Each structure stands twice: as C-alpha cells, then as structure tokens.
Amino acid sequence: FAKQMAQLLKVVCEIYDDNAVEDDSHERGVQCLQDVFDRAPWMEITPEMFEVMRYDPRVQKIFDDLDLADEDQFILFQTLDVDHSGSIDLEELCSGIAKLRGDACRSDIISINFMIQGVRTELRSSMTRFLKRLYKQEELITELRALQEPLSEIC
Questions:
Q1: Is 101 in a helix, a strand, or coil?
Q2: What pTM was estimated for this model as a whole?
C-alpha cells in the first residue's frame, strides 16, 4: 500500500505541475517523496485536475493495484472532498483512498447501518421540533385572526 501511495503522490505532483498556473512559489519536479511532503501544505487538487489525473494511465494502474472499484473511481472526487471545499488536499487524497481499498466487509456495513440509524433518529427529532413550531405558529395565527375580527367590525 505504501509503495502505491508514494507512486500516486509523485504522479499527482507531476500532473499538478503540468496543470498549475506558473508561479515562483514552488519548484517544479519531484525527486523524492520528501519533495511531495514539502509541497503538501499548499497543494490543492481541483475537480478538473482530478479528472486529468484520473485518466492518466499511471494513476489508473495505481488505482487498480490499490483495488479501488470502478464505481468508486467514478465519484472519487466527491468522496474524497470530505470538507466540501471544492478541492482535495493531499491529506484528503491519502486518507480517503486508504479507506476505499478493497471490498466492503461486515464491519463496514454494520458501521454504515449504525450511522443511518443515527441519522434517522436525528431526523425524527428534527421533524418533531419542526412540527411543534409549526403548530405553535398555527395557534398564533388563529389568535391573531380572532383579534382581527373585532377590529374589522369597528373599521
């Protein structure tokens, strides 16, 4: 796994260099993995850059070696962009790919089941609070209409 991730990071840097706007803030080229880590704090992968990367034969081979399912590769950018920033940093890339490797096991399915149950519970609670507020507003509107009727007789 570590070897494939190191290869992936080097390829990502090369593709990034080829697609990034030229500036003087970094040196081009990756000589070793330390170069990747030195550049990691400012390196962001956009959706367009990710598509270029995803269709690169070297990246496709690495994804195959890492046993990433084709279905996962299709929506991989959205999956990896955990903070919904519209770009992927190297930490999101590495940790996300590590979690996507291989087939789902029972613990993954059970974990997702528990998460879904938690979401359903929270949704029920939110709906209950919403309905209580809605009923309260209906009561207030009814009271306001009752107060408005005598006023409309006077005017």
A1: coil
A2: 0.53
